[in-house]
Amino acid sequence: MELLTFKIILVLALFLLALTIAAYSTWAERKVAAIMQDRIGPNRSGPFGLLQPLADGGKFFFKEDFTPQNAEKFLFVLGPSLVMFISLITGAVIPWGKTLNIGGTSFDLQVANIDVGVLFIIGMASIGVYGIMIGGWASNNKYSLLGAIRASSQMISYELAMGLSLLSIIMMSGSLDLKLITEAQSAGKIWGFIPAISGINWNILYQPLAFLIFFIAAMAETNRHPFDLPECESELVTGYSTEYSSMKLGLYMFGEYVNMFISNAFIVVLFFGGYNYPGIDWVTQNWGENAAGILSIVAFLTKTIVGILIFMWIRWTLPRFRYDQLMHLGWKTLIPLALVNLIITGAVILAFQ
After folding, report:
1. Looking at the domain assignment, is residue 193 inside a domain?
2. Where would you find the membrane-spanning parts of this chain (predicted)?
3. How many domains in the chain?
């Protein structure tokens, strides 16, 4: 199999995977809420309500596509399209598994193995806010504009803490390459002297504070509860998406769930060993490259789905912040903590060199 053919198949597989997980995250969100509120949740469309995402998608497609009279029509369409495009493209640099051997050739399960993968994802996430800002402004609605301004302010604020927490991981691994960051977590010793089981030398053991900061910032970046102030229904009538209907609204909603999926995949790569799992080297030696590769994909997706469920658990547990509380947490708590963690990381690296 040629490399180009494999890459095309991988791109299509990732596209379908992202959309499927995003669709069934809406089902899981309702089920998690139902369990926590002692309800049943979706149970009419198919067994256990498993066809509910298809019913919701069909409803989006067949509802009237309304455009406000005074809206900037081109930008009105560009906003949700940009959000969805940016959400999907960030998955291109994530290593989703070890390798697969097809026809005697080993293929990496990564669409684009670039040296600056971390920078690429952070850059794309920064561009994503333009989709929300453009949609809110183009709607020519004061609630939409307020929601868009809230979203841009929130994302800019929490990107700083996110970037600073990432620097500690970059300093430890000495690379911006996500593949190298993942491989660095597969062997070695924990804290330099405790022998690690193959596949469990994860960065979470070294950087728990960086993980906590990054996790909180990721929830704020994806506008997840309790950081959903840009679209809070009680104040802004869903904020930047107020004037949207049909599949344009669907793109905003799907974009949020794809963002949540990619954010958790990024967290898994940075802090939980990526596709590594206990005994990965033993499996490779005894069961072969393909068995280890398939198990690595399963391990990666399992970790990612657990992260998504934690996002949902937090949504239905914590109340929404006030806006001043949100800014106080970002600027006066997370950024100073990230700076302190960065200084400690640098000192430890210098001490053990």
Report:
1. yes
2. 6-27, 74-96, 116-139, 160-178, 190-217, 249-272, 292-314, 334-352
3. 1
